[in-house]
């Protein structure tokens, strides 16, 4: 594909006014194709995953960073233009991934110690800059990702956030070898994370609200699947909370065995009710948050996906159905990870 002309327009979704998805806060527009900066790539979007973080941006759970932003940060596409200073890692025609993390300063104390996910100057695709609910998107070449073979565009898209964040959450949960892992919520990220844990020999138990999600969990190899706030059938070594529901922190912590860790994977969480020290934390149980990811996390996870095929369940929507996809996500009607096809 050749370089698009500057006067050619594209279709994109923008957050007109953040609010409940039922109020139609997204608006589809015709706008100019973005021009890449010298250090950036211009990408023709082939597929874009529909992430719960997109819903938080659209509904206003997260503060507005860019008025009228185009959401979407699980982007698979084709490089159609390479900026003059973008380096030699990518060429026109390459399949490329655009993920959530888009910029870090590289010089602060967090970046210097390998914790660039905590960089105070970090910027994010689909929040600080326009994302993949569009026909074209840009990405700094230093934050673009080479993608493993053996996957379709639809299968790859959820790996770029749901997969990467789940992989980091699994590390933060300190799951011991052969340990028992509880997953609270079983959407796009959890159904990928479960497969990583199972491949490493873990015993996985799922607590989630949707019957279809429970059925998917069992199909993928979970030892049990029950309601979101139901007690775990066994003491857990680790738990990961994917659902943005603070009330679930209590049953997750109560299910932990001595020394267990509960990792909270989401960028947004409703308020956590008061904890009872004896029931929820004593015996060296702990709670940890997860904040974005580093590029090293992304590389490690994508390398894992290259050698351990992950079955990604991807209900597909056209780009023109982005608002319906988010409504289905909000209502819990999606099993797996929804994907928009451009």
From TrEMBL:
Q: Which Pfam families match?
A: ADH_N, ADH_zinc_N
Gene Ontology CC, one term: cytoplasm
Q: What is the lineage of its organism?
A: Bacteria, Bacillati, Actinomycetota, Actinomycetes, Mycobacteriales
Q: Which reaction does it catalyse?
A: a primary alcohol + NAD(+) = an aldehyde + NADH + H(+); a secondary alcohol + NAD(+) = a ketone + NADH + H(+)
User: Which class of enzymes does this protein belong to?
Assistant: oxidoreductase
Q: Per UniProt, which keywords does this protein have? A: Metal-binding, NAD, Oxidoreductase, Zinc
Kindly indicate whether the keyword Oxidoreductase belongs to this entry: yes
| Residue stretches making up the Enoyl reductase (ER) domain | 23-340
Q: Where is the signal peptide?
A: none
Annotated PANTHER family: ALCOHOL DEHYDROGENASE 1-RELATED, VACUOLAR PROTEIN SORTING-ASSOCIATED PROTEIN 11
Cofactor(s) the protein requires to work: Zn(2+)
Identify the InterPro entries for this entry.
ADH-like_C, ADH-like_N, ADH_Zn_CS, ADH_Zn_typ-2, ER, GroES-like_sf, NAD(P)-bd_dom_sf
Out of the domains of life, which is the source? Answer: Bacteria
Q: One MF term in GO for this entry?
A: zinc ion binding
Official protein name in the record: Probable alcohol dehydrogenase AdhA
Of which family is this protein a member? Answer: Belongs to the zinc-containing alcohol dehydrogenase family.
């Amino acid at each position: 594909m050749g370089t698009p002309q500057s006067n050619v327009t594209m279709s994109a979704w923008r957050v007109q006014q953040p609010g409940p998805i039922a109020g139609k806060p997204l608006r589809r527009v015709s706008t100019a194709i973005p021009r890449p900066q010298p250090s950036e790539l211009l990408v023709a979007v082939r597929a874009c995953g529909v992430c719960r973080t997109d819903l938080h941006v659209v509904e206003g759970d997260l503060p507005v960073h860019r008025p009228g932003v185009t959401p979407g940060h699980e982007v698979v596409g084709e490089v159609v233009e390479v900026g003059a200073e973008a380096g030699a890692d990518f060429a026109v025609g390459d399949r490329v991934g655009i993920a959530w993390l888009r910029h870090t300063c590289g010089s602060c104390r967090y970046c210097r110690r390998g914790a660039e996910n905590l960089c105070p100057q970090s910027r994010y695709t689909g929040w600080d800059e326009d994302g993949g609910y569009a026909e074209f998107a840009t990405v700094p070449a230093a934050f673009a990702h080479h993608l493993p073979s053996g996957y379709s565009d639809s299968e790859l898209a959820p790996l770029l956030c749901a997969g990467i964040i789940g992989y980091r959450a699994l590390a933060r949960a300190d799951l011991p070898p052969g340990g028992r892992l509880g997953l609270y919520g079983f959407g796009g990220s959890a159904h990928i994370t479960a497969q990583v844990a199972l491949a490493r020999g873990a015993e996985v138990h799922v607590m989630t609200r949707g019957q279809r999600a429970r059925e998917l969990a069992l199909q993928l190899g979970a030892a049990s699947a029950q309601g979101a706030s139901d007690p775990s059938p066994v003491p857990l070594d680790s738990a990961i909370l994917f659902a943005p529901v603070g009330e679930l922190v209590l049953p997750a912590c109560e299910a932990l065995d001595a020394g267990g860790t509960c990792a909270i994977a989401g960028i947004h969480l409703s308020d956590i009710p008061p904890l009872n020290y004896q029931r929820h934390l004593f015996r060296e149980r702990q709670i940890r948050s997860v904040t974005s990811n580093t590029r090293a996390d992304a590389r490690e996870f994508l390398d894992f996906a290259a050698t351990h095929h992950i079955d990604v369940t991807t209900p597909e929507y056209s780009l023109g159905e982005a608002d319906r996809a988010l409504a289905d996500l909000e209502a819990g009607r999606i099993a797996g990870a929804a994907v928009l096809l451009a």
